[in-house]
Write a structure and sequence with these properties.
Layout lengths: L4 E9 L7 E7 L6 E10 L3 E11 L7 E10 H4 L20 E3 L5 H8 L25 H14 L6 H7 L5
Antiparallel strand pairs: 1-2, 1-5, 2-3, 3-4, 4-6
Helix pairs in contact: 3-4
Pfam families: DUF6540 (PF20174)
């Protein structure tokens, strides 16, 4: 039986030297071990792009990480019509090959695509011309905060999700 709600989790991949990488994680209907990871990937020098990692196996992850619950949403918000993971043809979700794409398949992913991925935040030495301007550094953490803010605004997540994100480890 498919649960009427699905938890939305924040994955924090810890780093002692750099800011932690943040992603959203929604487990599949069949397994809490596999699901979809939603994030932006890239760096401050070249910019970031959206990524949906499907059939992501959380148990196979070798990096140090933490999970924080942001709230639950109705399953209909995170299940898409094209998502083989939820159809009868897919078999067990944990046996599926991981795939990466940029095509939203459900309501939550469409909201994620509305939040612009951060562009270049750092200037190289060759770009330093004349007077220095203060640059606002944006990364996966700032993008995810914006996404959670939008999900709260859309009524998909409760206000407590903002508090969780604000208090999440940065490294």
């Amino acid at each position: 039986m498919v649960s009427p709600t699905r938890p939305i989790l924040l994955i924090i991949y810890h780093s002692p030297l750099f800011p932690a990488h943040w992603s959203l994680y929604i487990h599949s209907a069949r397994s809490r071990e596999t699901g979809t990871r939603i994030h932006v990937t890239g760096d401050l020098l070249t910019g970031f792009t959206h990524e949906f990692v499907r059939h992501y196996n959380l148990r196979a992850e070798t990096r140090s990480y933490s999970l924080l619950a942001l709230g639950s949403v109705p399953s209909s918000i995170v299940e898409g019509e094209k998502d083989e993971e939820h159809s009868g043809e897919a078999g067990r979700g944990s046996n599926q090959q991981e795939t990466i794409d940029q095509s939203p398949r459900n309501a939550l992913e469409r909201v994620a695509m509305r939040i612009e991925a951060p562009g270049k935040s750092l200037r190289g030495v060759a770009c330093s011309e004349g007077r220095e301007r203060r640059v606002e550094v944006k990364n996966c953490q700032t993008w995810l905060k914006d996404l959670v803010q939008e999900l709260v605004g859309e009524g998909m997540l409760g206000e407590t999700a903002l508090e969780v994100v604000d208090g999440a480890p940065k490294h």
